[in-house]
Amino acid sequence: MDRTRTGILTSPLFITVLGVLVLNDFVLKPHFHNSGTGKLSDFAGLFIFPLFFSMWVPRLRTGIYISTALAFMFWKSPYSQSLIETMNAVSPFDIGRTVDLTDLIAMFVLPVSWLCAPVTTSSTLKMKTLRTAWAVVVSAVCLFAFAATSTVEPSQTITYDKDYPFEFSRNELSRRMSNLYLKSFYVDHRPESDIYGAKLDEAICSPAGFESEIGMVADAQGEGKSTLRLATISYRCGARLPGDRQKLLSEFEKRVIEGLRSNRPTAARIRGILYDDKLKPAALTDVRLISLKDGRTQTRRVYVADVDGSFDFAPVLPGTYVLEVGDAHTVNSAAPYDHRFYPGVPSLERAEKLVVNGPLDLNNLQFRLGPRHATRLIRVSAVWKDGRPVTNGLVWCYGGSDWQAAYTDLHGKATCEVIADREYTVTVGRLTWTESDVPTQNVQNITVAPDSKTIDLTIEVPLTNFNRTQQAVLGRSGPGQFFVRKPGKRW
């Protein structure tokens, strides 16, 4: 291989690997969505990513390859989740990845890439114009591929307008629908029809586990009869493929239509109570339901326990699960307890496995935690420079890997409950009004030292941020809900 910059960019090997990366991310992943396509992206990406940047600064070749290896190990570990959540909160697009330590096998491609990297800063000015132009095109494709490979796929919507008749009334249909344990279920009763919405549990194309949102309409069809119309199903994939339509429809009919006709849930629910070491309810604490497959964690769902410590996961499909509170490496504000698995043990190996074989409920689980770590309140008042309150401003309180966020209310107030013995930085990071969601600029960051006392802060937001949003929507929307911690909130 010609190891000059233009020589590498125009070499058959580099172009082939780049083509595999693009083909895999935009064709193979949406179609097959399995671990094989994920690892293929890892191998191709780890080959061309450090090689590409080494071409521009060959003297930093060693540092680039070492940094790539370390960054890849961090990215594939659970430690990167807090970073991803923070990035998704501030960026205009979502980023996702699958935690699978077997992906680290792709690092064996780095030595091969190293052997292809340039060792000098050979000039490309004497190259033929056509070859240099082709190298520029390949460079642009590289940057696009690097940016696209970890972003979350865009939404897709399929319209069905398919009717399902039932030999019972519209009111009975509504009653049965509410008993199906559908996730994020809602109903809008209207005189002429009922509008339903929910989420299917089945992910169509993303290993990150994005669910499919279904829209339904129920109508009365004479006395003692009714019809349910499946209007649309929306999901997140990079491309619409022929098999998606039938796969979604089959999942809908299995989870919804069969459940309505049999008058029984098509999934289970897991309910219990969190207690601390003094048998007091662990109120407003994050508890995670983790699906296990072949001894490895697959998906996680979060429930914020009620004020009485109760939690309720539904629907729960057949499988093996464990319950988890806290983080293995640090104490966080959302669950200020040491890391525990149900019924109160410190390791996954000792955790009691919850086996779900069908629509049978697991109730009255008592999850014992350790002592609660001390917390404190950081109360924030966000104001414009002229003194008016900033409504729906997203306040961030972050300290290392721990962070809390809350929207300001109509008075510009928001509160973070954080770990007392930790330093936090507080700011107003975004403005979220009707049809407007933009990051703020030039807003002060206030550092709060460790302490057990409640602290009140006032953060001034420059009016230039107001001018960057739609002024007409100021005050029209109420307090935001996305980061508001309340019982039952799932994500």
Number of domains: 4
Stretches where pLDDT is under 50 for at least 5 consecutive residues are 123-127, 469-484
Number of strands: 21
Name the overall outline.
globular
Tally of separate helices: 10
Class from secondary-structure proportions: alpha+beta
Gap from first CA to last CA = 49 Å
Strand content: 25-35%
**How does the major sheet shape up?**
5 strands, antiparallel
Radius of gyration: 26 Å
- Return the average pLDDT rounded to an integer: 78
Q: For the largest beta sheet, what order do the strands appear in spatially? A: 1-5-4-3-2
**Helix amount:** 25-40%
Architecture overview:
There is one protein chain. The protein is α+β, with helices and mostly antiparallel strands and 491 residues long. The chain has four domains: 5-148, no CATH class; 155-262, Alpha-D-Glucose-1,6-Bisphosphate, Chain A, domain 4 (2-Layer Sandwich), CATH 3.30.530; 268-368, Carboxypeptidase-like, regulatory domain (Immunoglobulin-like), CATH 2.60.40; 375-473, Immunoglobulins (Immunoglobulin-like). It has ten helices and 21 strands. The chain has helices at residues 5-9, 12-32, 35-56, 61-75, 81-90, 110-116, 129-148, 170-178, 242-262, 463-467, and strands at residues 155-166, 183-189, 194-200, 212-220, 226-236, 268-275, 286-293, 296-304, 310-316, 319-325, 340-341, 354-356, 362-368, 375-384, 393-399, 402-407, 413-419, 424-433, 436-439, 446-448, 455-461. A five-stranded antiparallel sheet has the order 1-5-4-3-2. Strands 7, 8, 10, 11 and 12 form a five-stranded antiparallel sheet that branches. Strands 15, 16, 18, 19 and 20 form a five-stranded antiparallel sheet that branches. Strand 18 (424-433) and strand 19 form a beta hairpin. Helix 2 packs antiparallel against helix 3 (35-56) and helix 2 (12-32) packs parallel to helix 7 (129-148). The longest helix has 22 residues, at 35-56. The protein is globular and about 80 Å long. Residues 123-127 and 469-484 have low confidence and may be disordered.
